[in-house]
Amino acid sequence: MNSHQKPRQSWAGLFNISFGFFGIQIGFALQNANMSRVFQSLGSAIDDLPALWVAAPLTGLLVQPIIGHLSDRTWLGKLGRRRPYFLLGAVLAALSLFLMPLSEVLIMAAVLLWVLDASLNISMEPFRAFVGDMLGKEQHTAGYAVQTAFIGAGAVMGSIIPEVMTWLGVANIAPDGGIPDSVKYAFWIGGAALFLAVFWTVLTTKEYSPAQMATFGQGAGAADAGQPVRALASKSYLNCGIWVIAGAIVAFAVQAFALQKEVYLLGALLAAYGILSAIAISMAKQGNTTGMLTSIVGDFSGMPEIMKKLAVVQFFSWSALFIMWINTTPVVTQYVFGSTDTGSAAYNEGANWVGWLFATYNGVAAIAALTLLPLMARKFGKAKTHMFGLLCGAAGYASFFFIRDPQLLLISEIGIGIAWASILAMPYAILASSLPQAKLGVYMGLFNVFIVVPQLLVATVMGSIMIMFFPDEPIWTMAFAAGTLIVAALAMMRVDVPGETV
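Now predict its structure.
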């Protein structure tokens, strides 16, 4: 059967497809820029921050492949395939953002961070596949560029809301030492904006039905859909045992080297993956090729080669980003504003300035995604463009060692913003035409594993490294961030983009 081309989307269509991501990123920005502040305001020490942040990446690790797998197989009539997950996640995330600033104890804030991150992931994961569903290959780059621009714009709004509240006279210091009113109002406004933006995409888009996707040559029943699971049936259990042993070694190292207790989580995850892989292989050998576990494990082990190479780049890129999100507030408040007292005016002024720094790099990202990066990609190719972006980010992180003027830190954020735009757009633009379209949701979810795993490593291992070698000196986290982006840029040298000769 001859396949038809998907209709080209106008700029209004591209806007509607990705506008919901604007709201989702407001939620992520509020989380990233303010959760360390919330935790510290409720009594957390700096050394405990990574452990409290563990919930967020762990949730993404579990949720994204599952949601991707389910959304590939969902069709709810007029509501569609991906949009039910947009809506469910938006409702739960908005509720979490409303409740978060009402936290009176640390454990409540930690639990709500877990719920918030799960909800944001439920909404976010299908948006990556949504671009592929709705656009032809010739518009993939434009689609992800628009999505990245909305990510940047949403992050700007989410980052500056606390400062805007302060300008409007809302208290920036809580008299009882708790969460300031400026942060409370920011979370409530952000929750409303998130829901409305996602609801806009749900109302203004119409997904292609399974029958229509089949006419595009992208039906869910593609002939090779079950191949990765069939390949799983031929695998041995040796690798499964290696994963379990690796987990046991990590657990032993916690005791042997007096590492932070949260490192146990890393060992548990390694062992759990080995056990789940063994179960999936056993199920596949018995002929069960339709279950969620066998499908996800099979697809993970059968990733396209270019996806495996980009996974290495993602791993190191997102290690740097997570280091930044956890540690920028402690670094800026301690080294630039000279205070570690969460109840002081200087600390809270510095924490608000972090919001402006985050707004700057996100604003730069929104502009770079639509201007600089497409221009460079056409002239130098996507791989070299991504290398350039990553090196810009490394320079931005390294500059934190030398700059003590808060205004000059805005220059640092320009480099970070270019890197952020490239990280959000280039890998997906490279992958868009390489992945099996019938399994786009699960592959996008599995690709995000390489966003989540480095975050878990940072959250579990970075604390031990800092306590062991750089106690009470969070500035050194920026050296790690710069170094990992340099490694990511070098890893891009292994990526050959199909059809790219520049």
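The two ends are 35 Å apart (CA to CA).
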